[in-house]
Amino acid sequence: MKIAVTGASGLIGKALVKALKSAGDDIVRVGRDAPGRDGPDLQWDPYGQLDPAALEGVDTIVHLAGHTVAGRWSDHKKSHILNSRVRGTETISMAAARMKTPPRALVSASAIGYYGSRGDQTLTEESSAGDGFLAQVCRQWEAATKPAEQAGIRVVHARMGLVLAKEGGALPKMLPAFHVGMGGIVGNGSQWWSWIALSDVISAIQMLIASDSLCGAINLVSPNPVTNLEFTKALARAVRRPALFPLPTAAVRFFFGEMGVETLLASQRVLPKRLEEAGFRFQLPEILPALRTELTKAKAVKGR
Predict the structure, then answer these.
(1) Low-confidence winner among 88-102, 177-191, 284-298 (lowest mean pLDDT)
(2) pTM, whole model, 2 decimals?
């Protein structure tokens, strides 16, 4: 197939483009920079418009672009997080809807932040939206695909959990402390972290592209969420160091503010109900093997 990918220079985008090309698909990388040797194949302005004619011939669009949520949230930062997702999704959705031959599908990134912090409650795609800034972002983010849906395009909202990858995301930020034995639980460690290995994210997105029967919200998380305490113990075992230095709730609030509360302290026990019902098989469903696999990858790359 011919597949357009926004956010192709990001962690997930790079891995997805590589996998799709290996499978024989023709990829159009959509980015903000001018096309060139190291740039995208097609330039766009997420806050403006995208010429539908530039997408003609594309069978599927995978929309991954969006400003990172990492970093302390000022009002400006929050506005940038929200607008980059909502306006970018509106732009790509309207372009898809106006194509002479619309694509078969739009697979649009979302996040389990949709559910808010829900304690020990088990959450599936049937669960309601939660409270908080990230839940608000996710609701508007998903609603921005409406032009594509109204045009009859199959739309998938890929609600991703914590993606484990040595190349980027949260894991590289955690590793330095754990490597020197300075890691520890966050808060009281009882909050649920729903995670997924990068390799499983890529396989799941490929399934979402190929399956004409899947639409709407799909949770991209491991079937085995863990508490922060369990995650901490697993990461400490993976790096063979003790984890004796907790990060108290007060410290999270002081150093990270609202961002820390909604990401590090939030409890989201999310299950991939619809993925499993569709027959998806996880390569790395358990936390310790997933962490060890990522660390092994890192050593292999470093040794080249």
Answers:
(1) 284-298
(2) 0.95
- Residues 259 and 73: beta-carbon distance below 8 Å: yes
Can you identify the CATH homologous superfamily of domain 2-293? NAD(P)-binding Rossmann-like Domain (3.40.50.720)
Closest among 242, 231, 166 to 195, alpha carbons compared: 231
Determine the distance from the C-alpha atom of residue 113 to the mean position of all C-alpha atoms in its chain, rounded to a whole number. Answer: 10
Tens-digit pLDDT profile for residues 67-114: 999 999 999 999 999 999 999 999 999 999 999 999 999 999 999 999
The secondary element (H helix, E strand) that includes residue 140 is helix 133-143
CB neighbour class for 177 (10 Å; exposed up to 12, middle 13-18, buried from 19): middle
- How far is 304 from 292, CA to CA, in rounded Å? 19
- Tokens representing residue 47 in the block: 């806050």
Token pair of 282 as six digits: 């996880």
Task: Please report the pLDDT score of residue 304 as a whole number.
Answer: 46
Query: Pick from 297, 270, 302: which is nearest to 283 by CA?
Result: 297
How confident is the model at residue 299, as a pLDDT?
A: 55
- Separation CA 30–CA 241 (nearest Å): 42
Q: 229: left (phi > 0), else alpha (psi -120 to 50), else beta? A: alpha
Q: Detail the DSSP E strand segments found in 144-288.
A: 154-160, 162-164, 192-193, 195-197, 216-220, 226-227, 269-270
Q: Most distant CA pair in the chain: distance in Å?
A: 60
Distance set, CA 25 to CA 19, 58, 116 (Å): 9, 11, 36
Q: What is the rounded CA–CA span in Å between residue 96 and residue 154?
A: 11
Contacts with 137 (C-beta within 8 Å, 6 or more apart), sequence order: 81, 82, 85, 86, 113
DSSP lists the bridge partners of residue 5 as: 29, 62
Residue closest to 293 by CA, chosen among 241, 249, 253, 234:
234
Q: How many helices (H) and strands (E) in the chain?
A: 10, 13
Residue 291, pLDDT > 60, answer: yes
